[in-house]
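re: ur msg from earlier - yeah i can do the (2S,3S)-3-hydroxy-2-methylbutanoyl-COA complex, just paste it... oh wait u already did. ok heres what im feeding in:
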Amino acid sequence: MAAANNPLVRTEQKGRVAVLIIDNPPVNALAQAVRIALQEQLALASRDADTAAIVITGEKGSFIAGADIREFDGPVLEPALVRVLETIDASSKPVVAAIGAVALGGGAEVALACHARIAADNASLGLPEVKLGILPGAGGIARLMRLADPAIVLDLVASGRSIGVAYARRIGWVDEIVPAADLLPSAIRLAESLIGKPPRRISALPVRGTDEAAFEAAATRWAGRARGQKSIETVVDAVRSARTTGFSQAVERDFRTFVSLRGSDQAAALRYLFFAERQALRIPGVEPKAARPVKTVGVAGAGTMGRGITIACLKSGLSVVLVDTDSKALERAKPAIGEGLKRLAKSEQWGAAEVERKLASLSTANALDAMGSCDLIVEAVFEDEAVKRSAIAAIGKAARTDAVIATNTSYLDVDRLADACPDPARFIGLHFFAPAEIMRLVEAIRSKASSPQSLATGIQFARAIGKAPVLAGMCEGFIVNRILAAYRREMEVVLEEGGLPADVDGALEKFGMAMGPFAVADLSGLDIGWARRKRLRATQNPPPKFFPVADWLCESGRFGRKTGAGWYRYEDGKRMADERVSLLIERASAEAGVTRRSVAAEEIVQRALAAMLKEAAQTLEEGMALRASDIDFAIVNGLGFPAWRGGPLYYCDRHGLASMADSLEKRGSVPALLHRLVGEGKRISEYAQS
Ligand code: T1G
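and the outut:
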């Protein structure tokens, strides 16, 4: 055939089948030039008399990761993907999608516009647009609803999650699964078998039926989870109304909505976080390539964190040796880990056999000697320096001499813990957040002695188990708990001035925080902070002052949710304001000589943000975070700051950084870095260590 090949999309002729191969590394994003090239190669194939069928695939057995997100800062560049897909849909020659690696967003939509879909057994598919503040803009929703139950489509587009091919086939999204090595030959065979038959256009199919009541319940659930995120509300509406709209009308409406959302502030904030997550992996002197392979992980300590980390590792197919010297703790941990995997099985669509297979990769032991086979060991024993030091020394003795040892401490000094390790160069911090099997953020802590290779290994290990690592320096609370402590302190001042926990949490939750600081404290357990305050009082002279109510609560046995009461009381798991707590707060105000006043929600939010801003600026100034976007990403993923607002620094930049700095000045002091940036008219969210 006389195809004028294009470097971005080339055509290889295989008999009567034209194979269009997209080659735009690293992820085959559908940039404008790729869309033009695809359009051009499709036109050539459709005109070519020797071609009777077409296969679309990606270079080296891959497929397409979607639109080029970098284009979203400007206007839509022609041809829009939705138009290219009309060409595929309307082709009189059958078009087969050969899906390897990932078909995401616009990539998944390309596959849906084809007349048949064949996928490699290790591929995954997803419509993650919602996470970027948009919705599928090229007919993805309307087409998928003609293959899969709309209730399932709703779950997929509202969560934005990726799914494996087995599940994709079960719901009707792909037609055939083949071993990755056979993808292209199988796709060509499939295309040949379709020659001469009328193409099966999804656009011509009716919307699949669904259980209306279940659909509405799911739609209401999702709308409730949006917490202000427009894209979630929008995809729920899009799926709901696409059930009763004609195909073209639904596609055109979604395209228009996509264009308008794409230009929204929320979408810009979510794009910022998308790139922040990837930027966080760029650490000067720490090369991902230097990482040692991690197949077997040791976890020391079978408490809540140890279990969560174990589940996260097993989920991702790693082997785990879980050690606890307390046999009873170990006995309790085993069924809990099994249960944890079963809970994940639902969303991950694993069958019972898959859960059993993962569970079989777990071994347990009572003595740390069992860690000899581990590539990396996470120490998750009780948060106490002496306990941790002795565990680390024992792990150091038992471990291979090339194994990386990571402490999962939240507050302790990683440098001092490193001293307990026979080879401090192989020692790092990996701070997981609870529940560790769910929360994506992991703070990687570099101690004075950590080698770049150990750090690289820890970071790549975290990525391999689906986590999003951010580097933090050694300081009290690292990034997230440090900023949480500062902002909680400020919120305690609000309590002293006249607010109540429900006012503070309510205002911040309305702003979009997943949970206010007092609800978070109750969830984590007030005893942890109590122990920490006692430690700080004992070591600092003069001892730091704390708002006394948290101590009073602990003294009366109110440790938070686990004891049924803390800042709130809990009835059937529901949090309720507690008159007794109000009285304690009033007493604290009186003892401090403060006349209580009502503090408006707006003031609460402003002060919370100012406190976060101040602490974040200090963290940057001290070099404890490499860049501002690392902090924003960490606060969104570790503290539940609303992602659609971009993070506290991104938000402050857009809502009066200078006036925020002013108000800090009036209430005390402004970190020099913040002062300088404001003076130079710069944005703090763009700040990076040079
Ligand atoms: N556009 C531009 N750059 C992208 C990109 C994209 N879609 N995806 C990844 N990159 C860059 C990324 O910044 C990084 O760059 C490099 O590629 C490797 O990525 C019309 C509206 C595909 C699973 O949301 O989920 O389609 O840091 O480090 O871990 O409806 O990237 O090296 O300079 O993440 O192997 C929907 C987003 C778009 C997919 C690969 N698509 N990407 O993971 O590598 S909206 C997405 C991913 C859309 C249609 C619409 C992942 C990945 P750098 P990486 P990875």
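cool cool. The chain has 28 helices and 19 strands. ping me if u need the other ligands too
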